[in-house]
Design a protein that fits this description.
2 domains; 7-stranded parallel beta sheet; single chain; Rossmann fold; 13 helices; alpha/beta; 6-stranded parallel beta sheet
Length: about 350
């Protein structure tokens, strides 16, 4: 089968690119003829890919996409005719804007892969329009959560088949946390979405009760200085460590005992899979979407109402004060997260592609 994955920029190193290259490489290893088409004129993948995958870099996609709309559409159609794709998988629903006219009359089934949540358009109304086009004209829409699948079904007149396939756990580590270190960890970009100001406010409450514990935040972003100033203002800067961009995040997971997430919204937070695979119980806002699909509340972590700073602090304190509970949740996290194994998720994609043959 000739499978083409269409992505915004193959050279980027972010969640969408990581998952797309994993699924594409697994399909190539199963003997399919796999292509990755990059809207941006990038010929090198940011992540390792299977040696047999062919990268198609669109020459007109690195500039003004509105101005270059017709040349981009023409390029996509040229490659679709040249390679005779059996299926085109868009690794971002917004790409339906280009693929709909490009594939008109070519009888190529299109799979629109939603990597965000339905209620978030990331400031682009064009994304909302693309979702409507996908609902009407795509063969499948793949969401990352059942919550999002239901949102598509409830809000759009879907002719497309809407199916939830979560992202896979990239690897399952042999070495994991013993949950004895007095460290709470959080990993992510320091931006509005991740809501780190909530976590710092919660940590002010935690640190009064447990001044011997440390909060470590790994990541960089536009709010870095603002968050550091907030930590100083709250007088918690002595127990909060901003790690910046780190190369070996695995060591941070192993040397922590609790993972905290204070996001305003998510799509499907891969960081939770990683943290739990390292045996970290999670205290997280039950934001839309993802945490409730990953965390089994009070079994392998604690879900807190979104935006509830005091609840977040109480959840962290509960795990700090109960080592046995921490360790029980750690074992449960390691076991429960196996349902997102790469093998299980690839099985779902194989079934999808077989349905198109």
């Amino acid at each position: 089968m000739k499978i083409c994955f269409f992505i915004v920029d193959i050279s980027k190193k972010a969640g969408t690119e990581r998952v797309t290259t994993i699924i594409a490489s697994e399909m190539a290893s199963l003997g399919h003829e796999v292509y990755i088409m990059s809207l941006a004129n990038s010929e090198k993948s940011g992540y390792r890919i299977h040696k047999d995958i062919k990268i198609i870099a669109l020459k007109h996609g690195s500039g003004n996409n509105k101005k270059n709309f017709l040349p981009i559409v023409s390029e996509i159609r040229k490659y679709a005719n040249k390679y005779k794709f059996d299926v085109l998988v868009e690794a971002d629903v917004i790409l339906r804007i280009f693929t709909l006219p490009a594939c008109f009359g070519l009888s190529i089934p299109v799979v629109s892969w939603e990597h965000f949540n339905f209620n978030s358009n990331l400031g682009l109304k064009l994304r909302d329009h693309a979702r409507k086009l996908a609902a009407r004209y795509s063969k499948y829409i793949i969401t990352l959560t059942e919550t999002d699948r239901k949102s598509y079904m409830d809000n759009l007149n879907c002719r497309a088949i809407v199916k939830a396939i979560p992202n896979p756990l990239v690897f399952y580590p042999d070495k994991y946390s013993e949950c004895t270190k007095k460290v709470v960890l959080s990993v992510g970009r320091l931006n509005y979405q991740k809501g780190y100001e909530f976590l710092l406010n919660a940590w002010e409450i935690v640190s009064v009760k447990h001044p011997d514990w440390e909060l470590r935040i790994a990541g960089t972003g536009e709010l870095e200085m603002q968050l550091k100033d907030q930590a100083k203002y709250l007088n918690i800067d002595s127990t909060v460590k901003f790690l910046g961009l780190i190369g070996n995040v695995e060591e941070e997971y192993i040397n922590s005992s609790i993972y905290a997430m204070s996001s305003r919204f998510e799509g499907f937070p891969m960081v939770l899979l990683e943290a739990m695979s390292f045996g970290l119980p999670v205290v997280s806002f039950d934001c839309h979407t993802g945490p409730a699909d990953i965390i089994s509340d009070e079994e392998d972590g604690i879900l807190v109402e979104a935006g509830d700073v005091e609840g977040l602090a109480q959840g962290i304190c509960l795990l700090i004060e109960n080592e046995n509970l921490r360790k029980t949740m750690s074992i449960n996290a390691r076991n429960n997260i196996k349902r997102f194994s790469k093998e299980n998720i690839i099985f779902e994609w194989v079934n999808l592609f077989q349905s198109l043959e």
